[in-house]
Amino acid sequence: MSSVPSSTVHVPILVEPIVRALVEPYQLLPEDAPVHWLVDFTLGGGGHTAALLEALASAPRTARHKVLSLDQDPEALERARMRFARELEQGRLEIARRRFSEAEDLLEGRPVLGMMADLGFSSDQMDSAERGLSFQSEGPLDMRLDPTRGRSCREFLSQVSEDELGRILQDYGEERFARRIASAIIQRRREKKLPTTTRELAELIVRAIPAGARHGRIHAATRTFQALRIAVNEEMNELDCLLGRAILFLKPGGRAAILSFHSLEDRKVKHAFRQEPFEPLTRKPLEADEAETSRNPRARSAKLRIAERL
Ligand SMILES: C[S@@+](CC[C@H](N)C(=O)[O-])C[C@H]1O[C@@H](n2cnc3c(N)ncnc32)[C@H](O)[C@@H]1O
Known about the structure:
Elements: H1 15-27, E1 37-40, H2 47-57, E2 66-71, H3 74-83, H4 85-90, E3 93-97, H5 104-107, E4 112-118, H6 123-127, H7 153-159, H8 162-173, H9 178-190, H10 198-208, H11 222-232, H12 235-244, E5 255-260, H13 263-273, E6 278-280, H14 290-295, E7 303-309
Parallel strand pairs: 1-2, 1-4, 2-3, 4-5
Antiparallel strand pairs: 5-7, 6-7
Helix pairs in contact: 1-2, 8-9, 8-11, 9-10, 12-13
The structure holds S-adenosylmethionine.
Residues 10, 12, 42, 44-48, 70-73, 76, 99-100, 118, 120-122, 145, 238 line the site of S-adenosylmethionine.
């Protein structure tokens, strides 16, 4: 039997503005137009995919069009096979395991008028201790969103130079004590005592920073864990592939919506959406309102940008 829970705990963010913006161009298609696809690059727990399917099905004009949802995480796909069994059977939804950097074979030749990505990790991944994404639960020092390939966080830490690690903690974590933490980790490596679990790493980080800074608003290891997750999963490179290649498969008049959670990501999205052939539909990023952030704390740092292909 599968060990993947069949239901998701992930709460999708800013669903309404994403769906409204993405479905609009489908309402303008002539009735005899061929089937067009909406692409969700980050299937996750399937929250946005479900809303897109529902929105397309809700009007006779759009009901023929279909959704293609991708994710790199095999567990997300397994869960989606259960959640969307009916839609898959009806052919209204296709799902496939792909990274942003590998999606081109599926996009080639497919008319697409809407694309979305909800970056980072899902609550299902965060809550799964064996993924090693959280220092709140003891797990192996892994952090891969696709655990079947690439380097685990521990392998990464056993190879990275101290300078590079410091830069990663600084750039991806905006960590004030980046150099001190990098130096403490590399010192442990020299002693052949590199942490093997999330809690061991969290303790090492806490001990590396000045005592007065250990008890801030957020846990002292939060920024380092975020930075390491971004590095282990090559998230910046993946985002560059999404923005530089995959979204160019949109047809003119099509729209892209991207939800990001980190200032570096938002900067990249903002820049890409201001370049030809795109025109931003959001001058400033949309953010979740108070009602949504109180229901879903993860929505607090979300920034949504939408653009149209000219
Ligand atoms: C925030 S979650 C998406 C949640 C989803 N929108 C929902 O409503 O349930 C992000 C998902 O994107 C996937 N992901 C992140 N980077 C990816 C990449 N480069 N290629 C493919 N999938 C990626 C993660 O595995 C994760 O499942």
